[in-house]
Amino acid sequence: MIKVLLVDDQELVRSGLRRILRRKDGFAVVGECADGAEVEAAAAAERPDVVVMDLRMKHVDGIEATRRLQATADPPPVLVLTTFDDDQLLSGALRAGASGFLLKDSPAEDVIRGVRSLAAGEACLDPAVTGRVLNAYRSAAPPPEAAADELTSREHDVLALIGRGLSNGEIASELGISEVTVKSHVGHIFVKLGLRDRAAAIVYAFDHRIVTPK
Amino acid sequence: MIKVLLVDDQELVRSGLRRILRRKDGFAVVGECADGAEVEAAAAAERPDVVVMDLRMKHVDGIEATRRLQATADPPPVLVLTTFDDDQLLSGALRAGASGFLLKDSPAEDVIRGVRSLAAGEACLDPAVTGRVLNAYRSAAPPPEAAADELTSREHDVLALIGRGLSNGEIASELGISEVTVKSHVGHIFVKLGLRDRAAAIVYAFDHRIVTPK
DNA sequence: TTCCACCTCCTACCTGAGGAGGAGGCCGCG
DNA sequence: CGCGGCCTCCTCCTCAGGTAGGAGGTGGAA
C-alpha cells in the first residue's frame, strides 16, 4: 500500500487525484494540504511514501515547500505536478529536490506510474521535459579533458589561467615568471591550437573543459 | 504511421520487438540491422522516424553507431534498449546523441510509449536511470538563466557574441552596425556588470549560461 | 657529446581594445 | 509636451595584447 500526500491549493485538482488513486488498488491518500506551509507538518504526521505537489500555490509555493520538506530527516520523494512547462519551474523543482516532474495534461495512468516509480525509489520525468534535462546532462559531465595534448604542461597552465580571464601580467605573477615569458607561451598556444587571440583561447578553454563555468 | 528501424545483433530480440510493434496500430518496421556498421546506410535508405538500438553488438557497438548516425544530416532519434544498467553505457549513449534509454526488462508498453515519445520529438528515460540523470542535472546546470537583466536587449546580443570570441568588428558586421557602436555597447556592458575587459566578459557569459561550451 | 624540446627572458613594433566625452534620432511615459 | 532610456555614430587618446625574431639555460635522448 503506497501512502500519498496531496498538495494543491485547488480542491478540484485534489479530488481528481483522489479519485484516480482510489480507482487503483495499492494507493491510500493519507493527507491533503492546500498550502505549501502545511506540508512539513502533514508529512511528519502521516509519513507518506510519496508527496504529490503542485507548484503554483499561495503563501508558500511548491518549490519552497519541496525544499523545506527535503531538508527534514528521511523525507518522502516529491512528485511535482504542474500546469506550466517552464524551465524556471523545472529547474527550480528538481534543484529543490523533487524526484518527479509531470505536467497536468498527462494521462491519469502516467501519474499512477509516476507515483509507483517514486515509491520504488526511482525517478520520473514527463517526456515533454526529459529532453531538456538530457541536454543538461550531456553538456554537464563531460567525458575526459579533450585533446589539447599538443600543448606543453606550462602552456597548459597558461591556457587554464587565460580561460579564467586573467591578463598576461596576472598570469605572470601567478606563475612567478615574467610577463614576457607569458607572452611567449601565449603565442605558442595560439599557433599550436590555431587560435587568433585570447578571446578565442578562452572559448577554446571552456569548450575543451580546461576550465568549467562557475 | 511511425516508421521504425530495429538494430540488434540477436534475431530473437528483433523478432520480439517486431511482434510487439506489429500488435499495435501505427507502427511499421521499415528495416533491421544486425550490426552497427549497417545503421547509417539503412537509415539513409529507409528514413525511419525512430531507431531502436541495442548497445552490445559486434563490430560497431550501439554507442558508436548512434554517434555516427547523429552526425549525419537530419538524423532520426535513437531509442537505446539495453540489458545492462551501467553508468558508462548510459552516459555514453546519451552523450552520443540518444534521445531515449530503456532497459530490456521494461514491459512492452513502455517500449511502445518510448517510441511514440521519440517520434513526437520528445525524450524518454527508464525510471530506473532517471534518478541518476536527475542528479547530474541538479549538480550540473545551476541557474539555467541568471539575472543579467540589467543589460538592454542589444547589450545582451553583444555580450553573447563576445562570449563566442568575436572581435568588435565581427560583432559589428554580424549585427549590421558600426564598430564604434559595438564599442559603445561593450563599454556599457563592462560598467553594468563590473567587468574589466572582454576576457572577463567571456568568462561571465559562460558562467551565466549566456553561451554554453561546445 | 650532440641534438632537441622546453622554459625562460629580451627588444621592437603594430593593432585592437577600452576610456572619455559627446551628439543626434527614436520612442514610450507621465 | 518634455524627459529619459536606448541605439546609433563620432573623435581623441592610451595601453594591453599580439607579432617577429632572437638568446641563454636545462635536461633527456640518441
UniProtKB/TrEMBL annotation, chains A, B:
Record carries keyword Transcription: yes
A matching Pfam family: GerE
Domain HTH luxR-type: 144-209
Domain Response regulatory: 3-119
Domain of life: Bacteria
Alphabetically ordered keywords of this record: DNA-binding, Phosphoprotein, Transcription, Transcription regulation
TM region positions: none
Name assigned to this protein: Response regulator transcription factor
Phylogenetic lineage: Bacteria, Bacillati, Actinomycetota, Actinomycetes, Pseudonocardiales
In-chain residues carrying the UniProt-annotated modification 4-aspartylphosphate: D54
